[in-house]
Amino acid sequence: MSLSIESMTDVLVVGSGIAGCATALAAARNGAQVTLVTKASEPEEATSWWAQGGIAVTRTDPAAFKRDIRTASDDTAEPEAVDVLVENARSAIEDVLFETLDVPFDANGSGYEYGREAAHSKRRILHVDASTGRHILGPFLSHLAGLDSVTIHQDTAALDLLTHEGRVHGAYLESDGDVEPIFAGTTVLATGGIGALYPESTNPDGATGDGIAMAALAGADVRDMEYVQFHPTVCTEGEPFLVSEAVRGEGALLCNADGERFMPDYHADAELAPRDVVARAVAREREQTGGVRLDVSPLAFSEAFPDLVALCDSHGVDWQAGIPVAPAEHFLCGGIAVDSDGRTSLDRLFAVGECSRTGVHGANRLASTSLLEGLVWGLRAGRAATGFDPQRIEVPDLLDRDPALPERFGAEKSVRLHRVMSEHVGLERTHAGLKRATAALRRLKGEVDAYTRTRTSRDLYELRGKSVTALLIARAAADNPTSTGCHYLAEEPTANVD
After folding, report:
1. Which of 35, 246, 268, 333 has most Cβ atoms within 10 angstroms of its Cβ?
2. What CATH number has the domain spanning 8-227+333-384?
3. Could you tell me which residues come within 8 angstroms of residue 72 by beta carbon, excluding any fewer than 6 positions away?
């Protein structure tokens, strides 16, 4: 191959966050030759790197953990999926994070220092200050790079799946303008989230929904796409950045521009209410009073969160006066439908992490369960994906015969997509707005499709991924008449509003 990648592999993993890394580790342990490709050129370009709060653990009360997950989901989380997550949490964390990677989780004199976050009834969050993701992902990638049976290719994008009669045989890969197929016994999508579909997001720029779009175009089932979670506390001063939910867990308070604490008026759990409730409350108070600040004076902020203090200082934020915050897109609770081992509806295609829909989050995700979900399902998928021989099939070349796109083509289409998603498919929605969004996104997808038929480039296929995934979200939202969790219909405020 011109990409300097072997043309065949036992297991192809697309994505280098915690879910992709866990998949690669488990498959390698099971005797497979693994090729892990990621369009990221640095670890910090993966969403897992950006995870601040930490990873939830079972501790001594798994029943309470399960209840918290279901309650946060507005009682829509699937019990079987919740059982898989919670009952495999301890063994997965001990195996990978403790014994294999030796992650330096914060501790005190009596053991690990467990944090608490919104909608958790107990302290159960393992963390490293407020930058847990980077302390997991960096060592994880380094560990995989040292395994003979795992090959990692950075700055390499998957453009499309190779399919034949309902079976997936690998993917087209692109690197430095070269495109070639790689054939795999099994293919595992671990491509992360969809933040690039919205103008404000906590995700890296590369979160363009690629895996979901590729799977859907190949015929895989997708579910719960309407459940897009917004994080309530993203700093709005300078370049936006996430302020971990753990800060509220330690006692920080939300105050409006009049200096009034408002969350007790919206929910009995106040600042520790489920994310969808807090995010809508913050948005409403910003609209009504002109702003919202996170008051960190009730806690020893500089001692408890030195990483966040440094982040505030580097952005010129006077945290002692309160951190100005607003909601921003954070996590997709739905995605490619999978079973308890990450299998999709297509033969030999698996999906793990945020691009997958396990059912564990339902309509709203409980804080600090995303890293855990990626770890648990990654390990299970990695084991289940082994034992299949790659098969070379006849595949057409992707066409690239027409002139390059106009310089502003991608930027202009992205601006249109952002406008539609923020106006009509955001934190609050209406039936009429969703109808307009679906029509607008259908037109946008058609325009992009017209170019992908005769042109091949990473930027163009990312734009296709965004347009396809955005349309899936809008259609799912338009088809769901029930206001639940992250899918809040302003015209019928009957479910989990205040």
Report:
1. 333
2. 3.50.50.60
3. 119, 274, 275, 364, 365, 366, 367
